[in-house]
Amino acid sequence: MVRLPRPIKVSTLVTCLLFVGLAARSDGGAFESACTGDPVPAATLLIPYFEIDLADTNGKTTLISVTNAGGQATLAHLVLWTDWGLPTLAFDLFLAANDVQSVNLRDLFAGALPVTGGGSFAGCTNPLVLPTLDDAALEALRRQHTGQPDGQQRCAGSGRAGANIALGYLTIDVVQACSPTIHFPTSNGYFEAGGSGIAANDNVLLGDFFLVDAAANLAQGGEAAHIVADEARFGGRTQTFYSRWIDRTGEDARAPLGTQYRARFLNGGLFSGGTDLAVWAEPSLALPAAVLCDEREESVDVCQLLSYSVFDEAGAGQELPTEALVTEVTARIPVGGTEIPTAIQFGFVDVANRELRGCDFSIGQPPIQVVPLQSYVVALHSASGRFAVGFNAARTRDELCQAP
Fold it and tell me: Is the pTM of this model over 0.85?
């Protein structure tokens, strides 16, 4: 999320940064949310970030759990996405009433998908049919999530963590049927108005995740983003959780996430490992397919920025926020690193996702329009080799969530 892929006129860029900085720092008084940010039973769960060391079975991995909070059996549809926001693998989990299913994502990259029942749902068998992951399919999956080129020199992810670290995020939707052809939320028929497609609108799912590094003796976790469905309120709206991936039809009827989050950071004392932020940022331009690895910059919106406003514990802030170009949908970002530079050891940071429409006009003063985008942030604190903790950042802006 750091480099500018195409040059922007310097005066234009400065103006853009001032606009997004003021938008992120402006304070309208007490926070009022029209949407809940609490972990309530939901129709969709977002695991905002995962990482798996494919070369070391004792290295990094990610554990997730899904709970059916309803009184009847349900189906959960899990989809892996690369850090560029491309779906790669999908499968179903059967959940009995009040059932919990846990998955080590390392197993998926080894070809071991969880086997569950499900024959009582339309189009489903018992046990559920799972995608075939032969050697070729596994190699393709690993390459997609490690940013390595396929046979046509196309890439689906950044590879920013190295050739052996698989990165991405995960969505989990409640569904009411199995389909041999409709696999991803981007597929026709997955979402239909009124919850009549493959996906349903029942708010019954709960979830959480852990980032585990056995070699470093660390584990950090957080709650999934719980995204409720409400047909009366969000059906047909252009601003929903999946809007960027379904042509803004609003057929998912999912509530949008917040547009700004606040997280504490601890970079000293007992927390010798510092603080990282796992940041999921809705893209202004959804990537439809893998691209030639050396042409990724052509599909990046140079006007989409993440704004980081850093404050110390006394409330004193930096004069202007730090801005970073959004090149990945999800990333792990160290506080005090190149993207969030600060000498403050203990404080908090505001993270805002913004598109500045008009920022790349090359002639004259650009007619800048600041457009808020969804995001989700989890703070990850660690003391190297001793202990670690993670918690969800506070949701402080809900600019996309219209009042009922």
Answer: yes
